[in-house]
């Protein structure tokens, strides 16, 4: 039987104008550390104005960056605990 010991909450905030969307992502980890990332999206001038699409693209890019930072953090912790250089973690 598996017990869940922790949960993570990810926050996403957006800033938008007529052609650009910026996303900021934040996750607070149980050890008290925070990981932050950003993503952007730009609307081509011939595309219709669909803010939700810009949020999805900018949000996905921010979450992708957040995931890569978490993988790098975990890889460093594996190396620190083992005292050696481990194999890279691939997505």
From TrEMBL:
Residues 30-54 are annotated as: Disordered. Pfam families: Rv2632c-like. It comes from the Bacteria. This is DUF1876 domain-containing protein.
């Amino acid at each position: 039987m598996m017990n869940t010991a922790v949960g993570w909450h990810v926050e996403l905030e957006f800033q938008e104008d007529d052609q650009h969307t910026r996303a900021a992502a934040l996750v607070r980890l149980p050890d008290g550390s925070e990981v932050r990332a950003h993503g952007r999206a730009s609307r081509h001038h011939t595309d219709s104005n669909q803010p939700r699409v810009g949020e999805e693209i900018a949000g996905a890019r921010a979450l992708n960056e957040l995931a890569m930072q978490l993988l790098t953090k975990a890889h460093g912790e594996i190396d620190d605990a083992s005292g050696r250089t481990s194999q890279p973690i691939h997505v």
